[in-house]
Amino acid sequence: MNNLMSGKNVVVMGVANERSLAWGITKSLHAAGANLIFTYRKERSFQKLSALLFEAEITPLLVVSCDVSDDASIENAFLEIKQKVGKIHGLVHSVAFAEKDELHGEYVDTSREGYLLAQNASAYSLVAVAREAKKIMTDGGSIVTQSYLGAERVVKNYNVMGVAKAALEASVRYLAEDLGKYNIRVNAVSSGPIRTLSAKGVSGFNDILGTIAEKAPLRRNVDQSEVGDATLFLLSSLSRGITGEVLHVDAGYHIMG
Ligand SMILES: CCCCCCc1ccc(Oc2ccc(Oc3cccc(O)n3)cc2)c(O)c1
């Protein structure tokens, strides 16, 4: 598998620290021989990413700033990628945001501002990024985003992010339809709960890990490496017949009532 992604340029958005899903994905892609481009929003994330890459002896093709809530920022980032790398074959969208105070209590109390912010950062961002990525995916390619079961079913406290992820998963299907004619595939990985910096923003996160370990068919939780390998699969030619799909990497938990 160490040459599955040889010669492939892949953009990874959303490495915040060593616990990030995007960092697990990075390690899987690197092991498969991919050339990596990273985007980051916060300076802190850039510092963490730089340290992680040095420690893992991964030399990136490029590291660029990109705020996925800002169209100009996305356009500038992909212009720089086009100028310095040329074409890309894969894109990992692993970014989302909602106000912490909208991630507990009752969904009925969600503010209009909080709802739009979650949609903007977590769902529309894929549409804007896919539009720019398409322009430099001239050999075709694969786009993978990250979702969670709360998009499909009510998960207490996930609230406004659940509705944003529902929009994200529907966007995966509509983007798959639009981009298929350019041989660009669009899919999502829906992972079980994993302890990341973002997970700290969702009330009740700690309680749910225990439930998964008890009830999931595999009787355990999943980790970043399993999300990394499933995302690598969806980015690689091994999934060339798959698009518009949501692949659950959750120890089977989603099949349980
Ligand atoms: C009770 C639900 C437990 C399972 C939640 C699994 C999960 C964990 C993290 C997820 O990603 C985010 C990303 C941003 C986000 O918004 C945040 C995160 C930290 C602080 C803050 O102000 N907002 C919340 C969750 C996500 O979409 C899903």
From TrEMBL:
One of its GO terms (molecular function) is oxidoreductase activity. The keyword Repressor does not apply. Keywords: Fatty acid biosynthesis, Fatty acid metabolism, Lipid biosynthesis, Lipid metabolism, NAD, Oxidoreductase. Its EC number is 1.3.1.9. Pathway: Lipid metabolism. It catalyses: a 2,3-saturated acyl-[ACP] + NAD(+) = a (2E)-enoyl-[ACP] + NADH + H(+). InterPro entries: Enoyl-ACP_Rdtase_NADH, NAD(P)-bd_dom_sf, SDR_fam. It comes from the Bacteria. It holds the Pfam family adh_short_C2. CDD domains: ENR_SDR. Belongs to the short-chain dehydrogenases/reductases (SDR) family. FabI subfamily. NCBIfam families: PRK08594.1. This is Enoyl-[acyl-carrier-protein] reductase [NADH]. It comes from Laceyella putida. The gene is fabI.
